[in-house]
Amino acid sequence: MNPQSLFSKFSPVTKVSEFAPGMPSMLECFATWCAPCRGAIPHLAEMSQKYPGVYIASVSREEEKVVQTLKAKMPQMSKYNVSVDKTGTLGAFMEQQGVGGIPHSFIFDRNGNLCWQGHPMDKECEENLKDLSK
Fold first, then answer.
1. Cα-Cα-Cα-Cα dihedral sign, residues 105, 89, 53, 17
2. How many Å separate Cα 23 from the centre of its chain?
3. What are the pLDDT digits (tens) for 111-134?
4. Is 61 helix (H, G, I), strand (E, B) or coil?
5. Ranges for the Thioredoxin domain (predicted)?
């Protein structure tokens, strides 16, 4: 599944940029109850500011009101794209990729190819974002 079809299925909670075809992107899977996911929020906000040419979005499978409650407590979530998945697309994509744990990020190149996946705080994650932003 290409990133454009993935992102089009999600409902925005915070929208700071638009995804455009040909744009590198990062999909970060999270949940509000997940302490490591909450710990990654300041880092994701920083990466979004640092690499504006890369579309960065965090997506949760929870209800929008649950994500809104966390956003009210963590204003950094207003600095990058945050969405909820009401369609089951995120879970199906994670399962297809053999991923069960969160937080987990998928990075797609300009052609929509999955080029990296792993923990959003891994050094390789930022290295890929840096390379793709050139």
1. negative
2. 14
3. 999 999 999 999 999 999 999 998
4. coil
5. 1-134
Name the nearest CA neighbour of 20 among 50, 55, 45.
Answer: 55
Q: Which two tokens stand for residue 80?
A: 């990058």
How many helical (H) and strand (E) elements, i.e. helices and strands, does the chain have?
A: 5, 6
Total count of residues recorded for the chain: 134
Tokens linked to 102: 């969160």
Helix (H) or strand (E) holding 127: helix 123-132
State percent of the chain over pLDDT 70: 100
Using the predicted structure, report yes or no on whether residue 1 has a pLDDT greater than 80: no
Q: Is the pLDDT of residue 2 over 90?
A: no
Angle between the N-to-C axes of helices 123-132 and 35-50, in degrees from 0 to 180, rounded to the nearest 10: 30
For the chain, list the domains and their CATH numbers.
Answer: 3-15+24-132 (3.40.30.10)
CA distance 30 to 62: 9
3-state secondary structure of 105: strand
Residue 113 exposed, middle or buried by CB count within 10 Å (0-12, 13-18, 19+): exposed
